Amino acid sequence: MSSASPPVISSLVLTLKPGGESKTAALAALAEFPGLELGDYRQPWLPAVLESTAPQDACDQLRALPGVEFVEVTFVEVPTDSPMTDLPA
């Protein structure tokens, strides 16, 4: 049995810092971020979907990127084989 965590899907809204250079740097870094799919930028917000086996670490990395002011997690899909699904009702 594998001890690897299954990937978790998270919906995010990223707030980018104002300013052309800062925004450009953030968008370039986000476009290269593994497991991140970007939506349409609506100043100052950028919707995104993240697929990661370590979503908390990935969000911490996103927050640390130049030009990213805030990362809001709006939804998290818990895999059906997660220990969270075995909790009593």
Description:
This protein has 89 residues and is α+β, with helices and mostly antiparallel strands. It has one domain: Lrp/AsnC effector binding domain/regulation of amino acid metabolism (RAM) domain (Alpha-Beta Plaits, 2-Layer Sandwich). 25% of the residues lie in helices and 34% in strands. It has two helices and four strands; from the N terminus they run E-H-E-E-H-E. Strands 2-3-1-4 form a four-stranded antiparallel β-sheet. A hairpin with a 6-residue loop joins strand 2 and strand 3. The longest helix has 12 residues. The mean pLDDT is 88.
Instruction: Give the averaged pLDDT, no decimals.
Output: 88
Overall form:
elongated
Major sheet: arrangement of strands = 2-3-1-4
> What distance lies between the first and last C-alpha atoms, to the nearest angstrom?
27 Å
User: What is the CATH fold-level name?
Assistant: Alpha-Beta Plaits
As residue ranges, the low-confidence spans are none
Strand content: 25-35%
| Whole-number count of domains | 1
Cα gyration radius (Å): 15 Å
Order of helices and strands: EHEEHE
> What is the CATH homologous superfamily assignment?
Lrp/AsnC effector binding domain/regulation of amino acid metabolism (RAM) domain
* Portion in helices: 10-25%
Question: Structural class, from secondary structure content?
Answer: alpha+beta
- By DSSP, the count of extended strands is 4
Profile the largest sheet: 4 strands, antiparallel
Question: What CATH architecture would you give?
Answer: 2-Layer Sandwich
Q: Using the coordinates above, name the CATH class.
A: Alpha Beta
Tally of helical segments: 2
